[in-house]
Amino acid sequence: MKEVRLKIPDNKISFFMELINQLGIEVAEQIDIPEEHKTIVRERIKTTKPEDMIPWDEARKQFSFKEK
C-alpha cells in the first residue's frame, strides 16, 4: 500500500475532507508525540540491557487478548 501526504490550504480543508468522505477514503490523522514522551523512550533505549530482552513471540504469550 502507498502512503500519500498532502498539504491542504486551511480554507480548502472542509471541501477536501467532504470529498474524501464521499469517496470512502480512509484518513489517518497524524499524531504529534510530545517531546517529554520521546525523551522517556530515548532514555529507555539507552538504558536497556540486551540480556533483559525477550523475543516478541515469547512476550506475546504473556498478554491476554480479548476475542472480537
Descriptive notes:
- The mean pLDDT is 88.
- This protein is elongated.
- With 68 residues, it is mostly helical.
- It has 3 helices and no strands.
- The protein has a domain at 33-62.
Quaternary structure classification: single chain
Q: How much β-strand is present in the residues?
A: under 5%
> In this structure, how is the largest beta sheet organized?
none
Poorly predicted residue ranges = none
Helix content: 40-55%
Secondary structure layout plus pairing:
Layout: H1 13-23, H2 35-47, H3 56-60
Short description:
The protein is mainly α. 43% of the residues lie in helices and 0% in strands. The chain has a domain at 33-62.
Task: Record keyword descriptors for this entry.
68 residues, mainly alpha, 0% strand
